[in-house]
Amino acid sequence: MHRATSRVRVGSTEVRLAWAEVPPAEPRRDHAWRLLAQMLPAGAELDNTCPRCGGPHGPVVVRGAPFLASVTYAGSWTIAAVAATGDAGALGVDAELEVDSRRDAAGMAGLLEDDDATVRDWVRVESVLKADGRGLRVDPRSVAVMADAGGWTAVVPDEGVYDGSDAAGPGGVLVSVAVQPRGGRTDRAR
Fold first, then answer.
1. What is the pTM assigned to this prediction?
2. CA dihedral over 127, 131, 135, 140, signed as positive or negative
3. 85: burial class by Cβ within 10 Å (0-12, 13-18, 19+)?
4. pLDDT of residue 116
5. Which residues span the domain enclosing 106?
6. Quick check: is 79 in a domain?
7. How many structural domains comprise the chain?
8. Average pLDDT for the chain
9. Is 187 inside a domain boundary?
């Protein structure tokens, strides 16, 4: 499997990313698990049992190693992220194709609070909701994202503040990473 990697600093946490293009008939999850296994120490075990229904589509949990992990898919790409649990309490990664004719025809109106939202705005919010662990059970319009020169910060009502950064990824794919600092910081201080 050909893969590429990058690193990004999100707040005080270093996040490692890896991505690979998945051949058409192969399961994306298998590729995601291989990417994670290559970035995690030996003995780490992965699970993504949904806490609501028991299906294999819940947040990624790492057992046997002090790491957090998250995966996402965009077009034919699988993207995986890992971070040590030192300063990080939660991790989420999301990606979308920069150009997707079906999505672009439907538009972004109504998905986020800002009617002029971009795909980049959506990827940031989705990475936060993945880090939060509830995904789209939280109304994406309730997430406030504030960008600055060093990245961005997001607030999820009643859940706290997340640090965020846009990250390198495959060509034509927008990638964003969100980290909630350990202890679930609830103020906007950086």
1. 0.89
2. negative
3. middle
4. 74
5. 4-181
6. yes
7. 1
8. 87
9. no
